[in-house]
Structure formats: structure tokens, C-alpha cells
Amino acid sequence: MSTVHSHSEPQDHAADKLGMWLFLFTELFLFGGLFLVYAVFRSQHSVSFHNAADELNAFTGTLNTVVLLVSSMTVAMSITAVRYGERRKAMLLIGVTLILALVFMINKYFEWSHKFHYDLYPGSEVMMNMEHGEILFFGLYYMMTGLHALHVLVGMVLLTITLVKVQRKRITVERYHLLENSALYWHLVDLIWIFLFPLLYLVT
Amino acid sequence: MSKSDTHISRYRELALVLLALLFLTLLSVLITELHFGALSVFVALTVASVKVFIVLLYFMHLKFESLLLRLLVGMVFVLYGLIIIVTFIDYFFR
């Protein structure tokens, strides 16, 4: 593009990464606020939270955990591939990450539609007749997994852009910051799920 | 030049990290199946914290980043811990 910035600037890289991390901090607190609400309500309605969490399918949650963990590894490997100059391998690894993200979303779709089938969604009659604590649990469940799923979608868009740029050789051995930052974002999605999974699905 | 620019994670290393994470996932599923009550919340959150720590260090490459970045990330988690403590103090003593 402009000739001024065409030479490599090592400082640029550090600033890029720092900026991405600052953004990730705001994301952590976005979810952190919801975790805090969860913790307080759970301490006040522990029995209802226990009963409500029992209705979630632990298998679906575990499966999605495994899917996200594997996808985190593949995206981390894609950075290695780009830095070794193995373009095809990098594209393959980002592609696998995208497929795993899609698997996660399909899984989520079935999980949610199963609940919708039994009229279990915010504002439904079934839910309004539940105990106060259970309403709170399912409200938080939809809010937290919904916001998380939105992040998965954003991550997929970012990774798709990255994939195209690797293919067009805009991301190379020297310039891989976009891939690195997209990967950081993807790891954040994984990170949040690591906490969501035991809190919503396991601890009943 | 910082360590992060020279260090490249090896494929095998990343695969081993994944294995460790999958093992911890299995562990947390099995432990909560046993229903320890209040203790299982504690155990599940401890295992989750270990997993998050591993992801931060290896997948997010923090082990090889500058001291500044590592301190910043650490401080954010400490800050969040403080917020939790202050909130619960408020709820239990109001």
C-alpha cells in the first residue's frame, strides 16, 4: 500500500498483539459480569439451580467442549505452519478449525431446538410456571450460551477472512499478525466455554 | 527482539497440550458424576482454572510473551477475583 509502511517494523507486531489483548480483556469482563450474576444467584437459589442444571444434556456439553479444544489446537498449529512457510498445511488447519466451529454451532442448534420443542425458552408459559431460581438459571443459560455462540460466529468470520488472506499470500512468514490475533480471539471463545461447561452442564 | 518473535510452537508440543486438556475434561466429567455436592463445584472450577491456565500459556502463547503482557493478563484475572470477593462480601453482610 503506502511506501512509508512497506518496510518491516518489529514494534508494530508487539503493538498489534497488545491491542488485541486489551480488547480481549473487555471481552473477559463482558462474560465475567455474567459469571458474577450466575455465582450470586446460584448461592441464593442453590436447589433450583441444581434441579435446572440436571435438565441439561451433559453429553452435548462434553462433546462441544472436546470440539472447541481440538479447534483451539488446530488454529494454534496453523500459526506454526504459516511461520514454517507451509501455506497449504496452514490453510488445511484453518479449514479444519472452521469445520469444527460449524460442528459446534450445529450441536448448539439441536440443543436449543430440543428445548424450544418442549416450550423451554425465555418468556414461555412452561418457564414462567417454574420456580424463581429455575427461571433465573435458564435465563442465564440462554444469555450466556447465546452470547458465546455469537462469539463463535464472529470467530468463524474472522477465520474465514484469515483463510482467504493466507490463500492470497497476504499472510506470510513475515506478516502473520492477523492470523495470530484471530487465533487469540478463537482461544478466548474456547476459554469462556471451559468455564461455561462445568457451571451449566456438569455441576448439578 | 522479544521471545515471542523467535519462538515457534512445535506441532507435537501443541498436540500434547490438547491431550492434557482432554484428560482434564474427562477428569472433571468423572468427578462431577460422583456428586460430592458443594465440593464438586469447587473441584470442577479448580479443574477449569487449570485448563484455562494451560490454554493461556501454550495456545495463547503467553509463556513466551513479554513480561509486560504476562503481567497485564495476570492483573486482569487478579482484578476479576477481587471483584468476585467484594461482590460476595456485599451479599453476605448487607
Oligomer: heterodimer
Number of spatially distinct domains of chain A: 1
Tell the overall outline of chain A.
Answer: elongated
Distance between the termini of chain A: 56 Å
- Strand percentage of chain B lies at under 5%
Count helical runs of chain B.
4
Give a description of the structure.
The complex is a heterodimer of chains A (204) and B (94). Chain A has one domain: Cytochrome c oxidase, subunit III, four-helix bundle (Four Helix Bundle (Hemerythrin (Met), subunit A), Up-down Bundle). With 204 residues, chain A is mostly helical. Chain B has two domains: 52 residues; 31 residues. Chain B is 81% helix and 0% strand. Chain B has four helices and no strands. In chain B, helix 2 packs antiparallel against helix 3. Chain B is flat. At the A-B interface, helix 1, helix 3 and helix 7 of A face helix 2, helix 3 and helix 4 of B.
Strand and helix map with partners:
The complex is a heterodimer of chains A (204) and B (94).
Chain A: H1 10-44, H2 46-54, H3 58-83, H4 87-117, H5 125-128, H6 132-167, H7 177-202
Helix pairs in contact in A: 1-2, 1-6, 1-7, 2-6, 3-4, 3-7, 4-6, 6-7
Chain B: H1 3-6, H2 11-33, H3 38-59, H4 67-93
Helix pairs in contact in B: 2-3
